Amino acid sequence: MVRRVFHIEDITLGSSRDEFLVRYRGHLLDSDSAAAYDRLAESLRPHAVTPLFRWDGDRHVILLTASQAVPTPSNPRINLILFILTLFSVLLTGGLYGLQDALPAEWLPALLVFIRNGWPFALSMILILGAHELGHYFAGRYHGAHVTLPYFIPFPFSPFGTLGAFINMKDHPKNRRALLDIGIAGPLAGLVVALPVLYIGLRLSSVSALPVSIPADGAMQMEGNSLLYLLFKYLAFGQLLPAPPSYEGFSPVLYWLRYFFTARPFPYGGTDVMLSGVAWAGWAGLLVTGLNLIPAGQLDGGHMIYVLFGKSVAQRLRPIILVFLALMGFVWSGWFLWFVLIFFLGRSYAEPLDQITPLDPRRKALAILALVIFVLTFTPVPLTVLTPPLLP
């Protein structure tokens, strides 16, 4: 069966210490390695054997391994319960976000106020997260991968009412092309929904003056800027926001470079957009896209680096990413958490069964596009919470 697709130069039988049953080294007979893999995998399936295509220098290697058991299907009731809980959680967050006056004393009128205030944000947030995860899901199903339905994570009384959503891919992707399709489908689908939501939300928002100081009994939360968010605010309002009252002796370029990466100094007395609930959800969609495209580990961005440059380059890039996150942690402390996550969980990659088949030009362009989107959606300081100074 192997000789139908492979010129064998040597054969090694695996032992109990090896991860393979048999190893063949040589060269594929067909230049279409993806088709060769499909033919061999199909012929070996009745024997419960799975082939792996690898490189050994300039030679091809085929490893035969024992097939893993077919993953058991997940329980869709769990997905449904988590979705309903998340829907209530984001509705609560949206209701609190849009609350202007005191709630009615009776519970039913209060509930109706919450629903009226919260549904635009809740619907927008669910659509963005759902599009992202369903993009992964349908791409996985297209390539025959065993993927679960999305798991939404409720997180009430938080800025977004949720910690996002995820799907679980229960087996290895077939090749780099499949991994690219599955990895990029989520960010692209989520962004396709997030951008119109953001623009519509900005048009529903208003530009107002910022306070000259924080009241002694109050606090203020300020969202951060990505390049794409700055562009959409400019398209909606014709100016870069937040607009400071003055540039404090700096040129506009130097001022914005400093403010973009540090969110300092806060533009007291300037003007900024007061985000509607829909705009808040759209901004969150950009943030989620940027975080998912961090080029490390099992994140979508990690998949892009792996399929473009291979595992060795991805591993060499990881320390650079960690140093960058550690430095950014001194600007926004949340990056320290991402440093820890990638330090411990960013070492493994979704390695395809067939590592010989390269990306085609169209998919290379898509992977590069994903990295460009990461640059455009990366938010150096996602949130700034301002409190009045402590009095001596």
UniProtKB/TrEMBL annotation:
Family: Belongs to the peptidase M50B family.
UniProt name for this protein: Peptidase M50 domain-containing protein
Signal peptide: none
Transmembrane segments: 80-99, 111-131, 151-167, 179-202, 273-294, 320-345, 365-386
Cofactor field: Zn(2+)
Organism: Levilinea saccharolytica
Domain of life: Bacteria
GO process terms (BP): proteolysis
